[in-house]
Design goal:
The protein is of the alpha+beta class. About 35% of the residues lie in helices and about 20% in strands. The strands form three sheets. A four-stranded antiparallel beta sheet has the order 2-3-1-4, with helices on one face. Strands 5-6-9 form a three-stranded antiparallel beta sheet, with no helix packed on it. Strand 5 and strand 6 form a beta hairpin. The radius of gyration is 30 Å and the shape is elongated.
């Protein structure tokens, strides 16, 4: 008997079977997990370093280049890009699809430790990294309001409590608080007691400056030059001075 003989003798059943096969194929096509442009996410790690007051050329030669030399030794890097600006340096590394991002993060930390001896000694903190892609948009944005707390207190609660709790959630790569500034501490020196201990005002200022970083507050842009604006608050006895310091970035 020929294979097509039963279908020829029963045309109605053959027609109904064909309709069933077509409907099943249409339903299966919608549920196929294959797309013409699949969502592929490469493992990406962003490293950062800061040196307040340094111009972009200094950041590129003294901070970015030593880090790039060590990062280039990591296996599985497909692409590495860097950007150096005033006081900050950012390096983005893209790895192979088969690289585990946690294993790549351990290699990045080891490379940062190896490059620490080649970096400037006056870095306020060691370079760090985030397991995020800087080109991605924020996944969630939260707005905080309060009827009993002012803006600095609200920012302090967000930065010290809420952001740290959210950062502990599995899968969260970075949490950023914006909209205000960190609370500052005003120090009032007693010259009599400092003289009793043999400590001068300059020694006190140097000791405070080594553990506190004062970044530029803004910039003035001209046709051929760019100035960074910084403010300092110094207390000498009962008198307070707040001079405005304007420093020129060389070569700008």
């Amino acid at each position: 008997m020929h294979f097509s003989a039963p279908f020829i003798r029963r045309p109605v059943a053959t027609f109904l079977m064909s309709i069933a096969v077509i409907l099943a194929g249409a339903a299966a096509y919608v549920l196929l997990p294959v797309a013409s442009l699949p969502q592929v996410e490469y493992p990406v790690i962003s490293a950062y370093a800061s040196l307040p007051g340094a111009d972009p050329e200094t950041m590129a030669s003294a901070v970015t280049t030593p880090l790039e030399r060590q990062f280039a030794k990591i296996a599985g890097i497909n692409e590495m890009t860097s950007s150096s600006s005033t006081g900050t340096a950012n390096i983005t590394m893209q790895f192979d699809l088969n690289r585990d991002v946690n294993g790549a993060a351990r290699d990045v930390q080891a490379a940062i430790n190896a490059a620490r001896s080649q970096l400037p000694a006056n870095l306020p903190s060691n370079p760090g990294y985030y397991k995020i892609n800087p080109a991605d948009s924020p996944i969630l944005i939260l707005a905080l309001t309060s009827d009993t707390m002012n803006v600095p207190q609200l920012y302090d609660a967000c930065d010290s409590i809420l952001a740290q709790k959210i950062a502990q959630v599995q899968g969260v790569g970075q949490v950023f608080c914006g909209g205000s500034a960190k609370p500052a501490v005003r120090i009032e020196a007693n010259p009599v007691q400092l003289a009793h201990y043999g400590v001068g005002l300059e020694a006190l200022r140097a000791a405070i400056g080594t553990v506190n970083v004062n970044q530029p507050k803004g910039y003035l842009q001209g046709d051929g030059k760019r100035w960074s604006i910084s403010t300092t608050d110094q207390l000498f006895g009962a008198k307070e001075y707040a001079p405005l310091i304007i420093a020129t970035d060389r070569g700008r």
